[in-house]
Amino acid sequence: MTVKQAFPGQAALRQTGRLYALGLDVIRCTFKRPFQFREFIGQFWFIASVSLLPAALVAIPFGAVIALHLGSLTEQIGAQSFTGAASVLAIIQQASPVVTALLIAGAGGSAMCADLGSRTIREEIDAMEVLGVNPVQRLIVPRVLAAMGVAAFLNGLVSVVGVLGGYFFNVVMQNGTPGAYLASFSALAQLPDLWISEIKAVIFGFVAGVVAAYRGLNPGRGPKGVGDAVNQSVVITFLLLFLLNLILTTLYVQVVPPKGA
Amino acid sequence: MGVEVAVEGLGKSFGRQRIWQDVTLTLPAGEVSVLLGPSGTGKSVFLKCLIGLLKPDAGRILINDTDLVRCSEHTLYGIRKLFGVLFQDGALFGSMNLYDNVAFPLREHTRKSETEIRSIVSEKMGMVGLSGAERKLPGEISGGMRKRAGLARALVLDPQIILVDEPDSGLDPVRTAYISQLLLDLNAQLDATILIVTHNINVARTVPDNIGMLFRRELVMFGPREVLLTSEEPAVKQFLNGSRIGPIGMSEEKDEATMAAELAAGATMVDEIRGVPPQLEPTPGLPDRQAVHRRRARVMRILHTLPPAARHSILASLDSTDRFAR
Description:
A: mainly alpha, B: 326 residues, six-stranded mixed sheet, ABC transporter ATP-binding protein (chain B), P-loop_NTPase (chain B)
């Protein structure tokens, strides 16, 4: 449905606009009754089931890598006692929400996009609209909310597993002191770190859900179009995630003073 | 009684590609109309515009004095409840069995109890001859069954306007005949306005009260069935005969040169199909089609404006029905 191009890049701009419009529609329809509770529970369960195990498995080596890296770094500058503090900060603030979002987008979002895409080309979405049911409210809102909810919970899980992995590798492999690792947790980290972690996870979940839904509702022609749409939805989500992460982190650093400063 | 759908000066294009323009027609309330056209002339696009899934670039679509092209989304969702649409492949929800598919509109739009829903659903499933297949998933049944299930779902909210996209695609001639009969029976029972989009000549010749044809990016004609069936318009004649001879080519319209060359080569029509076959009647036992009486009154009023061949055929059919009545 491309109208003639008035200036280069107009198509990209239009796509961006429509993505935003869908995001706003989702927010608007979230408060519209009736809420699709069964769809929500079903999707929540589905996204959790496909992303739970991979998230835990990714979290262990991620935590370990950060711990090992920091361990050797802190040893060189003689600050071993802060290893725990630094790795906890890195895992909770950065690694955990990003890992969570990557998995929600990669595992849950791609499945969601494929499902919606195949429904679109089979005219199911059209049929639903014709039956007087708003597909955004009926299908998209529960999915996006489920992605956000799972992201929040998964973020907690990834944080815990990541910290445990870091602890294990620091103590066992690098002969760190268990007491010092644990005691230093609160030396640098503070409660807002946990908040920003959860806020990031929820926002990333929203973005992953909306992008997957947008590409799913607007696939190219035929089965190949759906395949391309799934691929693009994952890539677009990843790009947006890292950009958003940068913005949120910058804001956080400006707004929340670091501990002891 | 069904609702009249008035389309005025409708135009639609995708990018630089114009699909059709200046389409003006009125689907008379409660009558069955067919929209014909070669593949790729935008028949399905026209259907999607009628239900507001696509936005036309120009023109108006008036239903109950509301312009579908310019009304708010909220009004559009309200008006859509008047419609029952049968998509080409049925467009059933793949994750639900047939029963849940047919019950879906009731569960979304009414506060009926499950017992009431069950009785309505089994009635509609019976109407399309699908009793006993309620627990099947759309993936497990044949194309014809999917179509009929889609029809049952379209009927469940007692629509005033039924739009049917290619009822014959993927069906054998016998099943197509059954579907045609079913659509006509539905018209007798519900008195709903029906628009069938198809390129099946048999359906076009025997089912509708009115026929229109899209060709060369515009509506060639639209009117009582006799007008199109007796038309001498080359494209219409060629299409109704399913012949290679005429202005319709394999891909787009033929150019004049090819056509002249064909004629010069002495290509002639074999077994030319002409005339106006009798229209299908509802299955005996069903109520009379009210549309027949309304249409007769309407056609008689405009009789003097119709071409002579059509006029002749209408008068002949009147004579025979009157004789039959006596």
